[in-house]
Design a protein that fits this description.
This protein has 399 residues and is α+β, with helices and mostly antiparallel strands. The N terminus is likely disordered.
Length: 399
């Protein structure tokens, strides 16, 4: 069982590395203690025998900083369901099912759900009450990649990423050695998801998940499952139901994990006894663990490579991270790689990025697909790849 005893104060944690979360009256800062003097690896494992990152033994302060520590949360109980969904039959049924399925106290569940407020912003984001008209896929429009890339692979993100890497080099190296994941992709995820802690979300995770589970019929099953996992999480960790703030979809922390991912993949990398995704060390370790176990990350192969094509637009065969082609077949279609792909000769997916003047083609390996386990979109995975690589070049002093 993951122990985040102090997770009750997550929304107001003082993020030592990003400094982007406002301090509230009750705040706990956990131990990240980066050591900027730890050497950073100069190479990354490739298809041959990988060269490991420097083995780093993290150090922990003897007197961790704790601000305004609160007593342990004591669950409330009530025989009555109140709040925004007091009369909602579906919620009452959910409470009964959870009480039976997980052997939970119905009165305690009533008290938890009585704190819920309807999250109308989450409903608007998912266009629950709008009739969407058929539109042309945005990613097929000329210039769509230019616009998407500019949101994430820009000077501001790169500058913050370099700073974040240097401040957390020991944790990145430790995660790389333990899980076999290149730090550039851990950095890329944190940059694309939260701008290195700049914005982790202001929605009550309980409010958002309850609202979507009850009112978003199209994905009710998914959000109901995540809501159940959230209830189990706060029960296991003994934290207040409204403690965690995150995105309108219910993801939270620098890693932006959904509750089910937290319960399965979050780790306590800094060894302080608490798994806290608002702490850089634990977020780094959790992302690496997620890539290894959910994404099946392979440290012996690369991720993606740009290829050249002699026409401006490409319409020949299906593209996307789910495709799989032999490289020899793509060669016959006129594609030429931009490098030797670190010696990788296995099957690849064909990724198309629509730019203003032409389509840009890339080959992706199973590691590229691993990134899509976070978000199943080609553009998302490519932004993670390119942002991480741009930051890595500067950290390694290659430009």
């Amino acid at each position: 069982m993951i122990n985040i005893k102090h997770f009750a104060l997550i929304p107001t944690i003082l993020l030592l590395s990003s400094g982007c979360v406002k301090r509230q009256p009750t705040t706990v800062t956990t131990n990240s203690n980066p050591n900027n003097n730890i050497p950073i690896a100069q190479t990354y494992p490739m298809p041959t025998q990988p060269t490991p990152y420097p083995v780093v033994t993290p150090t922990y302060p003897s007197n961790p900083v704790v601000i305004n520590t609160q007593p342990q949360y004591i669950p409330q109980r009530t025989p009555y369901l109140r709040g925004a969904y007091a009369s909602n039959y579906k919620l009452k049924q959910l409470i009964n099912n959870m009480a039976t399925k997980y052997n939970l106290d119905r009165y305690e569940l009533n008290a938890i759900f009585s704190t819920v407020n309807r999250d109308t912003v989450a409903l608007d984001k998912y266009e629950v009450f709008k009739t969407r008209k058929p539109t042309v896929a945005k990613t097929s429009q000329p210039g769509s990649w230019n616009k998407y890339r500019a949101q994430f692979v820009n000077p501001s993100h790169i500058r913050k990423g370099v700073q974040f890497w240097r401040e957390n080099a020991n944790w990145l190296n430790l995660a790389a050695n333990r899980y076999g994941v290149d730090p550039a992709y851990i950095i890329g995820i944190i940059g694309v998801e939260t701008n290195f802690g700049g914005f982790t979300g202001k929605h009550s995770v309980l409010d958002a998940l309850t609202t979507l589970a009850l009112e978003y019929k199209k994905r009710s099953k998914f959000f109901t499952s995540e809501l159940e996992n959230y209830i189990l999480l706060i029960k296991e960790q003994k934290i207040p139901p409204q403690a965690i703030k995150g995105s309108y979809a219910g993801a939270f922390g620098l890693a932006q994990f959904m509750p089910s991912s937290f319960r399965e993949y979050a780790v306590d990398l800094n060894g302080d006894g608490h798994t806290n995704l608002f702490d850089p060390a634990d977020a780094i370790g959790s992302i690496a663990n997620y890539f290894k176990n959910k994404g099946k990350w392979n440290p012996r192969i690369p991720v993606a490579m740009k290829v050249y094509y002699n026409k401006k637009r490409f319409y020949g065969i299906p593209t996307g991270f789910k495709t799989s082609y032999l490289q020899s077949y793509l060669y016959r279609l006129g594609m030429r790689p931009s490098s030797n792909f670190y010696g990788y000769r296995g099957p690849v997916s064909l990724i198309k990025l629509s730019k203003y003047d032409r389509d840009e083609l890339w080959w992706g390996t199973s590691n590229f697909r691993a990134i899509t386990r976070y978000n199943p979109k080609d553009y998302y995975a490519m932004a993670v790849h390119q942002l991480g690589q741009e930051i890595k070049k500067i950290v390694y002093g290659r430009r």
